[in-house]
Structures are given as C-alpha cells and as structure tokens.
Amino acid sequence: MNITHVNLAKGFRGGERQTELLIRALQRAGVNQTAVVRSGSPLNERLSTLPGLRLITAPQPYLFTIRELDKTSLLHAHEAKAGQFAFLAHLFIGTPYLITRRVPQVPKNNFFTRGVYRQAHALVALSSAIRGVLETYDTTLKPDTIPSMAAGFHASPEHVEAIKDRYQGKFLVGHIGALVTRHKGQQYLVEAAKKLASQAPEMHFLFLGKGNDEAILRAMAKDLPSVEFLGFQHNVADYLAAFDLFAFPSLNEGLGSTLLDAMEAGKPIVASQVDGIPDIVHHDVNGLLVPPGDSDALANALYQLYNAPEKRLSLAQKGLEMVADYQPDKIAARYFDLYCQLREKTQAQG
C-alpha cells in the first residue's frame, strides 16, 4: 500500500505542521508514502530530507501531476486545493481518496465542491464542531473524527533560562498564532492586557507570530509596555516552557493544535469556548474557557489564574495527562487503520 499525501499550501501553518507530523509518524511505522507539495513551499523544504519519502513537487497547473500517481493506493488530501486535486485524480484515473477537514467554515455551496466531498471515500474532521458542519452541509456525509497531534517540541534549558532572565519578575502570558484578528482574536487579548495593566502590573504579554494585522495590533498596544510582539520565532518550545500561562482568544478554530503544544509544555490555558477548542480544553479541568470576543471575561480568567498558583498547577498537570492521547504515533495509528479499511473496501468493490 502506498499512501500519497497532498498539501498544496503556500505557507506553513498548523495544517502543514500536522501533515508533516503525520508523514513522519507513518514513516517511523514503515508505511510506504509519497507526498505531493507545492514547489518552493516550506513543506517541500521540510520534507525534502526525509529518507524513503517520494516527494513530488507539483508545478502549476497541478493537474499535470496526476500522471505521476500510478503507484498510489490512496490519496490523502490535507487542505482545500488538495481536495480538488484528489477529486480530479479520482475522476481521471480512479484513485480513491480521503480528505482531512481542518477548519470550521462551511465549504462552498457549488456543484464542484459538493462533488469533491461526496465522492471522497472517507472524510476526517479534526473536531466534533467540524464534523457537525460537514454533516449539516450535506446530510449524506459521514465523517470520522481524528484530532490533531501535539508537535513534540523540545525546549533548550539554556534558552528557556535566558528568556526567564530577560523577563525576571514578570508573570508571562503567552500567545502563539498568526496575527489575523478575524480568526485568532488577538485584539481581545490586547484589550485584556489593558484592563489588567494597573491591576496586575507584573503580567507581561508576549505575542509570537506574524500576520496581516500586526500593524493594527501594535497600534492598539502602543501605550502598553506590558505587551510585546516578538514576530515569528523558530524556538517556540523555549517560549512555551518560559510562559506562566497560555492564552488563546480565537474567534473560530477547527481544533487549535497549538493548545496541545501548550499542554505538552505543562502550561495552564485560557481559551475561547468556540468550535473545536472545547474538544481538548475542558473548562476547569485543564484550562478555563471564556466566551469568544469578550475581553472582560478573558481578563477575569487570566487574573483568576494569576492569583491561584495551585490552580494553575492542577490545570497544567491535567493537561499533561490528557495530551498523552494526542501523540503523533497514536494519531498516525488511527489514520493507518482508516487507510486499511478503505483499501479493503475498495478492493471488495473492485
């Protein structure tokens, strides 16, 4: 069996990290794999050194790459363009395919997109919220639910100590994510920081990531010395280890794999109660959940945990216990079981 993964994204965000993690985990298990990626993409670069992986860099139009799929048993599409590619490959050469849906938005309501989802041999939703969206979009769809996986980041003790020294005496509230406010809701975290500036002057807010709304957020925080924007950081594990608390004020979120990384780093979480987040952050168990877009509730939750070190420790410990179920090898095993089921099904049909 040869599994061909398709991810044609330009950049490298959560979906691309999850694609890479899955490929690497399956590679460790000895699964024969191919990956179709966009030429020049970060994912292409990151997978290029993986031994034993057949890597196809797809030129545009991507349709020409279909002729290279002659040895493929199953296509696994990891994002929207990949889903279209897999659908067309199925139409032209009959290759079965599955789609992992990572976002909670409703797919486009047109004949072609409906065909992409209806013809898929399996659909995987990252969360119960995404599964519900797909089932409402088309009542004939029967998605499986397989969540994201923790990235298994490794922190450098020396770098962590250096970050803590830099912010000595500060209580670090961290956030990691693309600076896109309509999605990640960072404006509400800046507003919460403003509300807490006099109440808890030791609280210091670090934003890691780049994005189109960086200038807007910087303008919002220009009079707040307690807020810093550190841009894209390669050593996110070091910052996660240095944070006292992780804040995630998203307005929509398929699941939020960064939350798994925060749990793995042993951090208590304050996050929005929206879409797939409650699948992995359980209120008052491994974090606190607040209504999305509510800076008062966000500030109150942050302040509550700031004043409750034992509570922070309890939430963090529970998160560490829970994240054991989201390790790459365990999630990859669930996907491999699904691949085997689809192979048996397609062989029986044909």
Describe the structure.
- This protein is an alpha/beta fold.
- It folds into two domains: 2-149 and 327-349, Rossmann fold (3-Layer(aba) Sandwich); 157-325, Glycogen Phosphorylase B (Rossmann fold), CATH 3.40.50.2000.
- The chain has 15 helices and 13 strands.
- It has a seven-stranded parallel β-sheet, sandwiched between helices.
List the helices and strands and how they pair.
Blueprint: E1 2-7, H1 14-28, E2 32-38, H2 42-47, E3 54-58, E4 74-77, H3 80-93, E5 97-101, H4 111-118, E6 122-125, H5 128-137, E7 144-145, H6 157-166, E8 171-176, H7 181-184, H8 186-196, E9 203-208, H9 214-220, E10 227-231, H10 236-242, E11 245-248, H11 257-264, E12 269-272, H12 277-280, E13 287-290, H13 295-306, H14 309-322, H15 328-349
Parallel strand pairs: 1-2, 1-4, 2-3, 4-5, 5-6, 6-7, 8-9, 8-11, 9-10, 11-12, 12-13
Helix pairs in contact: 1-15, 3-4, 6-10, 8-13
- What is the strand content? 15-25%
CATH class of the largest domain: Alpha Beta
Radius of gyration: 21 Å
Extended strand count? 13
The CATH H-level superfamily of the largest domain is Glycogen Phosphorylase B
Structural class determined from secondary elements: alpha/beta
User: Roughly what percent helix?
Assistant: 40-55%
**How many domains would you count in the coordinates?**
2
Largest sheet: 7 strands, parallel
- The number of helices is 15
Order of helices and strands: EHEHEEHEHEHEHEHHEHEHEHEHEHHH
Overall geometric form: elongated
Distance between the termini: 16 Å
Task: Please tell me the overall pLDDT.
Answer: 96
Low-confidence stretches: none
As for the CATH topology of the largest domain, it is Rossmann fold
Strand order of the largest sheet: 3-2-1-4-5-6-7
Annotated CATH architecture of the largest domain: 3-Layer(aba) Sandwich
